[in-house]
């Protein structure tokens, strides 16, 4: 599933090119996770002002309203001056005078949703519960530590939930916890403030590094240019079960948490 770095990399790969584009038509294909909630033909004539990100959602601000895009489990966006005829898994085309933005999503867990504003019920339902943005200045240590203290579940699960900090998915949660030296099973409210500070810095560092590397391509992720990411090539623990830790050479272990695979070093992450 594309995580925050992949979504940010996607945004960066086409935001400047689509800014100022005037929409001529919107084509919707097979039903996605949620309906558009608006007549596509009414979007003709509107202009794309900017592309923002909130968590794993991309927000296309229009001169009237906005489109919220989610990549789901297997989605990708491609923006180009021209596109071939839509294939079986091409479920949305936003056609503009600068190019066509296409959502390709084999599993159809992605979505394109229209809202009159970010305060509209459709947008609040999707964005209202999201925690702090880890790459923004508003991601403060006091608020992060306070959020951990209020939760008794395992720290890995707290990171994935997205209520304290948003967008730290499975890959990057494992990597950040390794960097901070914290066992993924440790209860969030038992983490001391100094160790929370290490995790706070690790979350920022891991996500920023992943964006720099173009995200992670484990199966079929690519940005809006069609380019893959390379962060997974330097992962310290993720998907390295049985391989030696890059720090202490102890074999990396794998466990299941909430039906997701978790990877850690039993020596570098003692508790």
The oligomeric status of these chains comes to single chain
How much strand content do the residues show?
Answer: 15-25%
> How are the strands of the biggest sheet laid out side by side?
1-6-7-5
Tell me the distance between the termini.
28 Å
The rounded Rg comes to 20 Å
Number of helices: 6
Structural class: alpha+beta
Number of DSSP strand runs: 10
Helices and strands, in N-to-C order?
HEEEEEEEEHHHHHEE
Walk me through what this model shows.
- The chain starts with a helix and ends in a 7-residue tail after the last strand.
- α1 crosses α6.
- Helix content is 25%, strand content 21%.
- β9 (253-257) and β10 form a beta hairpin.
- It is an alpha+beta fold.
Summarize the SSE layout with pairings:
Elements: H1 4-18, E1 23-28, E2 48-54, E3 57-62, E4 66-70, E5 76-80, E6 90-96, E7 100-104, E8 111-115, H2 121-127, H3 141-149, H4 155-161, H5 170-180, H6 193-212, E9 253-257, E10 260-264
Antiparallel strand pairs: 1-6, 2-3, 3-4, 4-8, 5-7, 6-7, 9-10
What is the structure about, briefly put?
By secondary structure, this protein is of the alpha+beta class.
């Amino acid at each position: 599933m594309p995580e925050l770095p992949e979504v940010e990399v996607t945004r960066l790969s086409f935001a400047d090119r689509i800014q100022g584009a005037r929409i001529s038509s919107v084509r919707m294909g097979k039903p996605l996770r949620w309906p558009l909630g608006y007549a596509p033909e009414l979007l003709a004539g509107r202009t794309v002002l900017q592309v923002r990100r909130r968590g794993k959602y991309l927000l296309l601000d229009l001169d009237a309203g906005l489109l919220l895009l989610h990549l789901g489990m297997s989605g990708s966006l491609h923006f180009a001056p021209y596109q071939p005829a839509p294939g079986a898994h091409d479920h949305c085309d936003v056609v503009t005078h600068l190019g066509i933005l296409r959502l390709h999503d084999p599993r159809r867990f992605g979505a394109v949703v229209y809202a009159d504003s970010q305060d509209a019920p459709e947008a609040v339902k999707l964005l209202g519960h999201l925690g702090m943005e880890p790459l923004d200045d508003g991601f403060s240590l006091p608020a992060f530590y306070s959020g951990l203290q209020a939760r008794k579940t395992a720290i890995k699960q707290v990171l994935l939930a997205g209520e304290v900090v948003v967008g730290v998915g499975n890959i990057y949660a494992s990597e950040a916890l390794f960097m901070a030296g914290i066992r993924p099973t440790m209860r969030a409210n038992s983490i001391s403030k100094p160790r929370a500070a290490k995790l706070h810095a690790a979350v920022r560092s891991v996500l920023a590094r992943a964006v720099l590397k173009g995200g992670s391509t484990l199966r079929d992720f690519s940005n809006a240019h069609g380019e893959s990411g390379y962060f997974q090539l330097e992962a310290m623990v993720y998907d390295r079960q049985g391989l030696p830790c890059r720090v202490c050479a102890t074999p990396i272990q794998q466990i299941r948490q909430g039906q997701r695979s978790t990877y850690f070093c039993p020596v570098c992450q003692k508790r």
